[in-house]
C-alpha cells in the first residue's frame, strides 16, 4: 500500500479508516474524530499547506487496542484540555517503522527513529511531529491493566527502547506480534495474554510468569542468528534479559534444552536448503558452514541421526530433480 492510499478489502475484526476519499476541507476534522473514538484523541495539523493523507488500521483484542498508522507529514498534539474532556486512562506504546519523529513532553524532547519504540502515559500532554511522514504500530493498554501486567503504577517519563532485529529481542517480538495482528490483509490472531506476557517481559516484571514470552523472544533471536556459529546461550540470554540459568529453565518448561533446540532449527534449515535445486552448486561442507555448524563432520552425523539419511542423499535427489526439469 502506498502512503495515503485506501486499504484493501477489510479483514475480519479489523476496522480501516482512510482520508483518501474524504473532502479535502474535512479530512483533518474526520481524522481527529476517528482517532478520538478508535484510538487516542489528538489535535492534528499538516505542515505548510499539505493535504492530510492518512490511513489507520484498528483492532481491539479484548481490553487492548492495536493500530497501524500511515500518513504524510503532520503534527499531532494532546493537550490538557483534550485530556480533561476525554481521558484515555491508558498507556501507549508507539513502534516507529518509517520516518523520523519527534516527541515533545514536559520533561524534554525525544527523537524517535525507525526501529525504536516509545512508551508513555497517554493522559500526560505531549506533541508529536512527523516531518517526512510515518508508518507506526500502536499498542494502547488501559492503565490498570498495564499495572497488573507490569507491576508499574505510573509511567512518569516516556521510555524509548530499540526493537530493531538483533537488539532487544522481547521488544522486537512484541512489535512483530502487534504488526502481524494489525494489518489490513491476512492479519494473524493474537490473544491478550500473549501481549501482556510480552509487555511484562519487556518491563522486567518478575511477578508474572513470562516463560512463554521469553521463549518466544529467544526463538526470534535464534532465527535471526541461526547461521552464526558463535550463537550461544549467553548472548541469547543477554538479548532477552535473562540469566543463562533462567534461559535454560525457560526452554526446559517446553520439554527441550537450548542446545537441542538450536541444533534442530539448524538441521531443519539445512534440509530446506539442500532440497532446493540451486543448492546443488554447494558442497555439503559449505551447507554446514552456511547453517552455523563449525564442523562438517558433526553436521553430517547429526543430520543422519535426525533424518535417517545423509545430507548427500538429499542433495543428490535435488540435483536429479533439477536435471529432470532441465530435460523437459
TrEMBL record:
InterPro entries: AraC-bd_2 (IPR035418), AraC_XylS_family_regulators (IPR050204), Homeodomain-like_sf (IPR009057), HTH_AraC (IPR018060), HTH_AraC-typ_CS (IPR018062), Tscrpt_reg_AraC-type_HTH (IPR020449). Keywords: DNA-binding, Transcription, Transcription regulation. The keyword Repeat does not apply. Pfam families: AraC_binding_2 (PF14525), HTH_18 (PF12833). Residues 216-317 form the HTH araC/xylS-type domain. The keyword Metal-binding does not apply. It comes from the Bacteria. This is AraC family transcriptional regulator. It comes from Nocardioides potassii.
